[in-house]
Design a protein that fits this description.
The chain is an all-beta fold. It has a single domain, classed as Single-stranded right-handed beta-helix, Pectin lyase-like (Pectate Lyase C-like, 3 Solenoid). It is 3% helix and 49% strand. The chain is built from one helix and 41 strands. Strand 40 and strand 41 form a beta hairpin.
């Protein structure tokens, strides 16, 4: 029978104003010790109808951190209520709230709320850029490093001041049915970040956040940090995501490989990019699949990375001459979206993208926001212009090999500006095919449906129709 440790029995007031960190930490430590290191979990119970104010809590192995009913965990806004940890500084300028390192058999459950109180960590609103500017520090909410056999179920996390759930070097993770409800105009408040993680499943989640929704990374770690390996064997399914950055993303931090990753049956309600791979470092990205996904992608204000690209796969050096890996073996199947910019398969002379299949991808390009168009967003890079003036074809392929658009379609909406162009534009691509393609140019009296650069700086319209 599972043992339960009610935090109020350890002195937690639960009134929302008394700092309850010490009481909750004692309950966590006692619960973990009671298991004797075995596989049985002990429950740390935060009872309903109470609000628990905390700074940094160090989690332990073999516990279920349970927020019952409408219990609320409130984040302290006082810097001295937090201790600095060895978990690095990714995703924010301060420590974490719920942290753990080298733990096993840890879970989060319940229908309660973790409240990150992001408005209290913001300094001012920049009306010109349409986002909040943070104060000098802000905590991440959940930061787990080198942990295994983790589960997270049902709870709600809201108003994260920076990254919401950061998993660094974790294995065998299940995140099922959680809700993340962050402010859309707060930068760096990513939803879920598996980073150097293996064997992860994320499903049935509802994510609203200003920055990337679900983003898989392999970040560069400080010298002396353990080698956490690649991010691999990850599945994301049946999630609903809204953001002002990328909804589903790999990168930009990509110093180790990312492979064997599948995204499926997701609804991407709004974002700067729907589906995104941003390779900027020396890791390789391979065996990636996006399947049965709907999306909407649009322009936002200038500080947000992304310019409404529906699908964006880019391999660009972070700096001139820097090491750069390769993107290969990517499949996009049964994907439909409305977008304000092209879908890009866009490598570089340093790293050509290869073996990409779009199968039954249907794009509708339109313009409905107020922001300047006719741009590609290459950030982050100092090797080439970060914002590139460019016309807007439906599908754009550059510096790539073995690319197939099978049974794909391009339609144009009601607002078709002058810089909207071809159904497909191909630049320096080897073995490009488009069997079963349906679509015309945005301005068919001016442009051919396919436009191809056969050699550098020479544009030749293809006289043939689609395959």
């Amino acid at each position: 029978m599972q043992k339960t440790f009610d935090v109020t029995a350890f002195g937690a007031a639960g009134d929302g104003t008394t700092l309850d960190t010490a009481a909750l930490q004692k309950a966590i430590d006692t619960a973990s010790a009671s298991t004797g290191g075995g596989a049985q979990k002990a429950r740390v119970l935060l009872p309903g109808k109470k609000k628990f104010l905390v700074g940094c809590l160090t989690l332990r192995s073999n516990i279920d951190f349970h927020l019952a009913d409408d219990a609320e965990l409130l984040v302290s806004t006082i810097r001295s209520d937090y201790h600095d940890s060895s978990h690095g500084s990714h995703g924010g300028d301060g420590p974490g709230v719920l942290v753990g390192e080298n733990l096993q058999n840890l879970s989060f459950s319940g229908t309660g709320v973790i409240n990150g109180r992001s408005p209290d960590f913001m300094d001012h609103y920049e009306a010109a850029n349409e986002w909040w500017r943070p104060k000098s520090w802000r905590p991440r909410l959940i930061l787990l490093t080198g942990c295994s056999d983790l589960e997270m179920h049902a709870l709600t996390i809201k108003d994260a001041p920076s990254w919401t759930v950061h998993l660094l070097g974790c294995q065998r993770v299940l995140i099922d049915g959680i809700t993340i409800a962050n402010q859309l105009d707060v930068p760096n408040c990513d939803g879920i970040d598996p980073d150097h993680c293996q064997d992860v499943e994320i499903k049935n989640c509802r994510i609203t956040c200003g920055d990337d929704g679900v983003v898989i990374k392999t970040t560069r770690q400080p010298p002396g940090t353990p080698d956490y390996g690649p991010s691999e064997n990850i599945r994301v399914s049946d999630c609903i995501i809204q953001t002002q950055d990328s909804c589903l993303k790999l990168g930009t931090e990509s110093v180790s490989d990312m492979c064997n990753i599948r995204f499926e049956r997701c609804q991407l309600l709004d974002g700067c990019r729907g589906i995104c791979i941003q390779l900027r470092d020396e890791g390789n990205v391979s065996n990636i699949e996006f399947r049965d996904i709907t999306f909407q992608s649009r322009y936002f204000s200038d500080p947000w990375w992304g310019r409404g690209e529906g699908i964006s796969f880019t391999a660009i050096p972070r700096t001139a001459g820097a090491a750069l890996g390769k993107i290969s073996d990517v499949r996009v199947i049964n994907v439909t979206g409305r977008c304000e910019n092209s879908s890009r398969i866009d490598g570089s002379p340093e790293s050509r993208i290869s073996d990409v299949l779009f199968d039954n991808v249907h794009l509708t390009l339109d313009r409905w926001t107020k922001y300047k168009g006719g741009l590609f967003d290459n950030r982050p890079t100092k090797a080439i212009p970060d914002i590139e003036p460019h016309g807007t074809p439906a599908f754009f392929v550059r510096h790539a090999d073995n690319v197939t658009l099978k049974n794909c379609r391009a339609d144009w909406g009601k607002n078709v500006p002058d810089y909207f162009s071809h159904a497909i534009e191909v630049v320096e691509c080897g073995n490009f095919r488009s069997p079963g393609f349906v679509g015309t140019a945005a301005h068919p009296d001016r442009d051919p449906p396919i436009y191809q650069v056969v050699r550098k700086a020479i544009r030749v319209p293809l006289k043939t129709t689609f395959e």
